[in-house]
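Supplementary Note 3. Input sequence used for the single-chain structure prediction.
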Amino acid sequence: MLNAVGDEGVPVREIAEAIGRQLNVPARSLPAAEYEGMLVHLLGTDMPASSTITQELLGWKPTHAGLIEDIEQGHYFM
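The predicted structure, written as discrete structure tokens, is reproduced below.
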């Protein structure tokens, strides 16, 4: 499987905090017991993605902003 990710190991909390800054809403932890469904399992699972094999196999190098920097640019929140 090939992954085309520029960042590796970005914690969900950092993603939530970046989105919260754009929306002027503080990010905070919530107990999983208050929620049901796939989202709890998805966000509570460590699923690191790496593009090392993709880069080596295809000679590709990420050139765009990383995930947090991309969120911070604000174009998702217009």
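The chain has a mean pLDDT of 87. Residues 15 and 65 are 14 Å apart (CA to CA).
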